[in-house]
Amino acid sequence: MILSTPITDAAIRRHSADLSVFELRDPRHPIRFRWAKCRLRGSVHLVVHARGKSIWRKVAPWPSVTVAQVLSDLPRMISSLIADPSAPVQASEFVSFADLLRWHGDRVAKSRSLSKSRRDAVASQIRSQLLPLFGAMTLHPSRDDLDQVMQQYQQQYMVDTVRAGWGVLKKASKDARRLEMLSHDPLAGLAFSDLITRRPVRRPGRLRPSHAAGVLAQVTAASDTAAMLCLLALLHGTRIGETRLAQWREFDLVPGGCWYIPAAHTKPRREHVIPLSPLAIGLLLRYQARQRAAGYRGVYLFPAFNAPRAIGARDATRLVAEVSEGQWCAHDLRKLARTRWTDQGTDHQVGESMINHAPGKLAGIYINSSMREQQRQAIELYHDWLAECDPAGMLAIAAK
Q1: 343 and 209 Cβ atoms separated by less than 8 Å
Q2: Among its keywords, does the record have Calcium (predicted)?
Q3: Together in a domain, 189 and 215
Q4: How many domains does the chain have?
Q5: Fewer CB within 10 Å: C terminus or N terminus of the chain?
Q6: Cα dihedral: 178, 182, 188, 194 (round 10)
């Protein structure tokens, strides 16, 4: 029997036990519902009369897509089917950007290809920025709607932050469309520059080469772990994550040795090999000896305080802040190193490879070299300069 009744989730459940009813027909909307054999699920169909005939399309599985979701997407589906009866039509599983963002957040949280810091960053962007601004917006926004929200976004946050949030939003809509969770990509064809024309302000580093002596004086006065954390970053221009996660097995502490940072610890997800100077090897061997004398036999250079793992990102950042008294951060040490390499005449490509920046498209194609010898020369020259800047002579002693 075909029963004429307003189709809702409650109506479907109410009539599920009545085996004489195999189809529901909605008198208000051109949709029908048919049960599967198990009567626990079914399909919503769109029925449109166009060009002298009835056109049926299965548009949604129930209950994974609710009737309310189908009805919210109904005008678009009807228009699409009338315009092109052969076109595929499907209801979106999401009604608003809030649905899309929560789905994307769950996917990111379960992803093993992303670092924990990246998963946490995306979760924070969704929770604190994107949901409050975009959550109530339908997945069929007008250009004007998007423009208004993006203007609010940039009024509340810096341009770099807005660009990062837009990237998360674009990734969510693109992935949902690729997996057919959306019938369309609501942001297709839109670039960040279409909505935000203001360029980000590039903030200069808080440290210049002329500050090296002061930095080394602060490091010398710090605790052993904090001092070595800062020194390792300053000596090699490494990121805070690459530095804090360092394990002893990554270092060849012999003349001509290197530090092999695994791909999982680097931002571009590729192994980074850094030549070790005699100065760096001396510092590391002395630090290792002090660790062992204190009874530590673990694998990390910077172990967590109360757990068998590396120090966390927040604790590492706090240690650097204690050393610098809030005057600079770990990224400023990285910028100082890169600036000095340029000042001492290091080739641009060599310098970029030393801080593990991805090569440009053409450079990646035409330059097939690790540039290890040039890197070693640049590192040793830089470390000699740092030793000359060291007021306490700590680095000069380590180099012997």
Answers
A1: yes
A2: no
A3: no
A4: 3
A5: C
A6: -130
Count the Cβ atoms, other than its own, within 10 Å of residue 35.
19
Q: Which two tokens stand for residue 230?
A: 């800062």
* Residues forming a β-bridge with 2: 23
Domain boundary among 163, 195, 227: 195
> Residues 164, 231: one domain?
no
User: Taking a C-beta distance cutoff of 8 angstroms, is the pair 93, 181 a contact?
Assistant: yes
Question: 3-12, 114-123, 128-137: lowest mean pLDDT where?
Answer: 114-123
More confident residue, 159 or 86: 159
3-state secondary structure at position 364 = helix
Flag whether 88 is in a domain: no
Residue at 91 is within a domain:
no
Strands 42-50 and 31-35: antiparallel
CB 219 within 8 A of CB 323: yes
Residue 199 has what DSSP assignment? P
Query: Distance between CA 288 and CA 290 in Å, rounded?
Result: 5
Helix ranges (H only) for the chain are 9-15, 67-72, 74-83, 97-110, 116-125, 131-134, 143-156, 159-178, 192-195, 212-220, 224-236, 240-244, 278-293, 313-324, 330-343, 348-354, 361-366, 372-389, 394-399
Residue-range definition of the domain harbouring residue 46? 2-83
pTM > 0.70: no
Calculate the alpha carbon distances from 217 to 126, 210, 323, 392, 393 in Å.
Answer: 41, 13, 10, 7, 10
Interval 176-235: pLDDT, tens: 888 877 777 889 888 888 887 766 566 677 899 999 999 999 999 999 999 999 999 999
CATH of the domain at 334: 1.10.443.10
**Residues 266, 348 within the same domain:** yes
d(CA 207, CA 169): 34
| Residues 218 and 184 grouped into a single domain | no
Query: In the structure encoding, which two tokens stand for residue 118, read together?
Result: 């990246």
Asked whether residue 363 carries a pLDDT value surpassing 80, the answer given is no
